[in-house]
Amino acid sequence: MSFNTLLRSRWTNANTMLCVGIDPDPHRIPAHLPRNDALFQFCRVIVDATADYACAFKPQFAHFAAQGAEEVLEELIDYIHNAHPGIPVILDAKRGDIGSTAEYYAREAFERYRADAVTVNPYLGADSVKPYADHADKGVIILCRTSNAGGSDLQFLDCGGQPLYQHVARLVAEKWNANGNCGLVVGATFPAELARVREIVGDMPLLIPGIGAQGGDVIATVKAGRTAGGTGMIISSSRAILYAGKGEDFGAAARIAAKATRDAINDANT
Ligand SMILES: O=c1ccn([C@@H]2O[C@H](COP(=O)(O)O)[C@@H](O)[C@H]2O)c(=O)[nH]1
């Protein structure tokens, strides 16, 4: 099933626009887990505990690769597909390179890791994004207005009378989205810009990090980011869910945090 189909099914049938981010920090993995398999077991427990409330899972590539744990990432994505087959996996790798190399990054994301979607940096332009978008059943989620303060250094530069992030939103909506499988990353920490992007791109899915640990306001995010039909958002939270508990009950604590976040999103969407 395509990324778009899976995502829309979770929005509608599971009534959730919460994306559970999986950013494992080796220093915060509870000590009781078996040392030889702690990373996988930590992630597996989080996935099982939060799946009911997730429209997507978003493993962050560097959090695995920095530990030399790419095989654990493969194993985890396989596990999600097998145990929770209706929930799409967004590989947050923020790739960006010339087209010939991008073809291999796309194969890495979609064939090696079996991700349903991948995050991509637009800085290298159309030919650097096309190799991902050519996989028509996969999602390509392009950085637009990131959640960090430093994003303004470039994303607010004037680009023919509009800030660069709006130019990126227009480019993607009008030119790069020939297969209808593109989305954009827009931070919850900037609701005014989120609203502007929504106006520009219509119903395109927006991946929205920045609630939870980064302090973005859920109500402002939902009001700014939803489509006319009240969907269109993949609102991501990682640390606030992963580390809601510190001890043996970390799965239960993550489930409570995920449910509370999902409910807050839905309450704001009334
Ligand atoms: O603009 C962006 C783009 C990506 N991210 C990623 O999302 C999560 C956020 O984690 P939290 O713990 O919920 O703050 C993380 O993987 C970032 O790499 C982002 O924050 N902002």
TrEMBL record:
EC number(s) given by UniProt: 4.1.1.23
Record domain Orotidine 5'-phosphate decarboxylase: where: 17-254
GO biological process terms held by the UniProt record: 'de novo' pyrimidine nucleobase biosynthetic process; 'de novo' UMP biosynthetic process
Coiled-coil ranges per UniProt: none
Family: Belongs to the OMP decarboxylase family. Type 2 subfamily.
Name of encoding gene: pyrF
Domain of life: Bacteria
Catalytic residues as annotated in Swiss-Prot or TrEMBL: K94
Organism: Derxia gummosa DSM 723
Protein name per its UniProtKB record: Orotidine 5'-phosphate decarboxylase
First-level EC class: lyase
Taxonomic lineage: Bacteria, Pseudomonadati, Pseudomonadota, Betaproteobacteria, Burkholderiales
Pathway: Pyrimidine metabolism; UMP biosynthesis via de novo pathway; UMP from orotate: step 2/2
One MF annotation (Gene Ontology) recorded for this entry: orotidine-5'-phosphate decarboxylase activity
UniProt catalytic activity: orotidine 5'-phosphate + H(+) = UMP + CO2
One Pfam family here: OMPdecase
Keyword annotations of the record: Decarboxylase, Lyase, Pyrimidine biosynthesis
